[in-house]
Amino acid sequence: MIAGGGVIGSAVAYFLAAHPDFDGSVCVVEHDPSYQTGATARSAGSIRQQFSTPENIRISQFGVAFLKALGEILEVEGEQPDVQLQEGGYLFLASDAGAEILQANYEVQRAEGAPFDANAILGPHPEVPNFLFANGFSGHGLQQSPAVGRALAELIVAGRYTSLDLSRFGYDRIAAQRPIVEKNVV
Ligand SMILES: Cc1cc2nc3c(=O)[nH]c(=O)nc-3n(C[C@H](O)[C@H](O)[C@H](O)COP(=O)(O)OP(=O)(O)OC[C@H]3O[C@@H](n4cnc5c(N)ncnc54)[C@H](O)[C@@H]3O)c2cc1C
Fold first, then answer.
1. From CA 59, how far away is CA 135, in angstroms rounded?
2. Hey, whose CA ends up nearest to atom 48 of ligand 1?
3. Whose CA, among 4, 25, 30, 97, lies 20 to 30 Å from 40?
4. What is the extent of the structural domain holding 10?
5. Considering only CA atoms, which residue is closest to atom 33 of ligand 1?
6. Count of domains in the chain?
């Protein structure tokens, strides 16, 4: 059962259903079928690979490859969805003065505890192992949804990550107050 049918819940549902070794059924529970209140409908839909955490770069590389092939992958009875992907790219500009301000902002945000590290929380709850986290995506969850969907499907079916190892994003780091700081947050 997947709680929440936004882009992350939907991606987990898709990759689980598509996993060749999965023979169960998938139920997505969504309490706002209009999707007006979730983050997904508000997303700017931008994708990038400029991150400071290696896993985030590989997650995005898989995400863009998935989006490019999305029409074929998600084709149903000859109908191919078109998400009108445009690879515009991001341009980061900084001056010496600007860098100082950004650094100061970052320190304030860290001191206030928000966000913890701007990275996802993925995988089992330490005390309830069949409850899997897939949340905390900061402003980059949309582009991470294909890789996260695949990762959760692997955890459910194989009990481990079989393609991209995302174990560093587990809940343990939150409990241990050990952030993996993603510095390139937009
Ligand atoms: C303004 C804005 C701009 C953004 N721009 C980008 C961008 O350019 N690129 C990018 O990659 N990311 C972007 N993001 C981030 C991205 O939108 C989110 O990280 C992503 O949509 C998170 O997906 P989600 O499925 O986890 O959350 P959501 O879309 O919020 O989905 C969670 C769902 O769970 C449902 N739900 C909650 N509680 C329950 C419950 N108890 N039972 C059942 N259902 C429940 C909610 O109704 C909701 O539909 C942006 C976000 C915002 C707000």
1. 15
2. 38
3. 25
4. 2-87+117-175
5. 4
6. 1
Query: Which residue among 42, 43, 62 is best mutated to probe the pocket of ligand 1, counting the most ligand atoms within 8 A of its Cβ?
Result: 43
Check if the beta carbon of residue 31 is closer than 8 Å to that of residue 44: no
77 — phi, psi (to 5°)? Answer: 45, 50
Ligand 1 contacts CB of residue 140 (under 6 A): yes
pLDDT along the chain (186 residues), means of 10: 97 97 97 94 87 85 93 96 84 74 66 72 94 91 94 97 96 91 78
Q: What is the pLDDT of residue 41?
A: 94
> Looking at the domain assignment, is residue 98 inside a domain?
no
Q: 139 in ligand 1 pocket by Cβ < 6 Å? A: yes
106 within domain boundaries: no
Residue 180 lies in a domain: no
Nearest residue to 90 via CA among 60, 54, 46, 58: 46
CATH of the domain at 9: 3.50.50.60
Query: Would the CB of 37 count as within 6 Å of ligand 1?
Result: yes
Write the Ramachandran bin of 51: left for phi over 0, alpha for psi from -120 to 50, otherwise beta.
Answer: beta
Q: Is residue 134 part of a domain?
A: yes
* Residue 144 and residue 137 in contact, taking contact as beta carbons nearer than 8 Å: yes
**Cβ–ligand 1 contact at 45 (below 6 Å):** yes
